[in-house]
Amino acid sequence: MPAISTGDIFRANVSQGTPLGLEAKRYMDAGDYVPDSVTNNMVRDRLAEPDAAEGFLLDGYPRTLAQVDELDGMLEAAGVALDAVLVLTVDDEELVQRLVRRARTDGRTDDTEDVIRHRQDVYNEQTAPLIKVYADRGLLRTVDGMGEVDEVAKRIAAELDDVRA
User: Fold this and answer.
1) Is the N end or the C end of the chain the one with fewer CB atoms within 10 Å?
2) What is the pLDDT of residues 23-60, one digit of tens each?
């Protein structure tokens, strides 16, 4: 099952200097979300690829209520539905420190402390409301994101195994 990360797709386009990458970089460097129109089209194209026909894992999408509506339309057109939505919970200060470390180790220019804190504000304003939407649909699974990467990965895998069962 392919893991489809909008952030990875954006960063690949940035590193390749594509028109999408140049447009996305302006938003990413400021800590803002790339506009829905760009993101939706990118996800639509990716979900149409053959390897996603039997299922997929979306990472970083949807991030806005408008993207939820767009994703609903994509899935309805394909005759499929979401099985679950995972949300990782992490202490805000821990998240900032993790992303600052990631910036140093991965050379991520979009992970300055100021940008990260702005991104948290954008998340609280635009993405946090999606938690209620998916909870109301009975799809939400909450995973404790604190701890070592291996521990968190095991928690995620356990939730996904539970969904499959």
Assistant:
1) C
2) 888 888 888 889 998 899 889 888 989 999 989 999 99
